[in-house]
């Protein structure tokens, strides 16, 4: 997932950063003037990297980091004095002045970090799978007098023992009791 958003209030800075990245094979998905635009873009893409200055049209990079949470990694480019004001785990700092190589290597590092993060995340269940698991837990709790935790562990254990997904095990339980 190489969703890169460049967000600078100043159009010249936006264009310069975008050109540097694209000249080195990094495709910029969106260029933004404001933090709100960057937030909308990242949410629409379901995550990414934001390369921005300390101050955007209506917020600072710290505000942006707070609003995006773990949805994005942020590379803040600013003076060392401004960067010292940034306190967030998802803000990475590139002090000015910087070289094109510093910028490109920083963005590539963030792309690798993001890729590793997304690979380590377990796949999310669909709403139907979650509903089936909850229904099976309810049946086990009602019919077998289990607590929710016991029912959950039962489904997990049965799923691991049979090598099937928890949702498939839940459907089997539902079919058995129906």
Structural class: alpha/beta
- Main sheet, how many strands, which sense, barrel? 5 strands, parallel
Low-confidence stretches: none
Radius of gyration, in angstroms, nearest whole number: 23 Å
The level of helicity is 55-70%
Quick one: how many beta strands? 5
Structural descriptors:
single chain, 178 residues, alpha/beta, Rossmann fold, Arc Repressor Mutant, subunit A, 2 domains, five-stranded parallel sheet, 8 helices, 5 strands, 14% strand, elongated
Quickly describe the structure.
The protein has 178 residues and is an alpha/beta fold. It has helices at residues 11-23, 35-45, 61-68, 80-83, 100-120, 127-144, 148-162, 166-177, and strands at residues 4-7, 30-32, 48-53, 72-78, 91-95.
């Amino acid at each position: 997932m190489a969703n890169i958003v460049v967000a600078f209030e100043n159009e010249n800075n936006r264009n310069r950063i975008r050109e540097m990245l694209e000249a080195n094979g990094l495709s910029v998905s969106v260029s933004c003037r404001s933090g709100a635009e960057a937030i909308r873009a990242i949410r629409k893409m379901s995550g990414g990297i934001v390369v921005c200055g300390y101050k955007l049209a209506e917020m600072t990079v710290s505000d942006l980091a707070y609003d995006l949470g773990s949805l994005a990694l942020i590379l803040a480019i600013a003076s060392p004095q401004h960067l010292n004001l940034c306190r967030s785990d998802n803000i990475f700092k590139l002090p000015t002045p910087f070289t094109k190589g510093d910028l490109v290597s920083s963005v590539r590092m963030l792309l690798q970090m993001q890729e590793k993060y997304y690979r380590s995340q377990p796949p999310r269940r669909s709403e139907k799978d979650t509903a089936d698991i909850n229904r099976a837990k309810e049946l086990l709790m009602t019919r077998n007098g289990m607590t929710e935790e016991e029912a959950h562990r039962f489904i997990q254990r049965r799923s691991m023992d049979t090598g099937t997904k928890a949702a498939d095990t839940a459907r089997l339980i539902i079919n058995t009791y129906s």
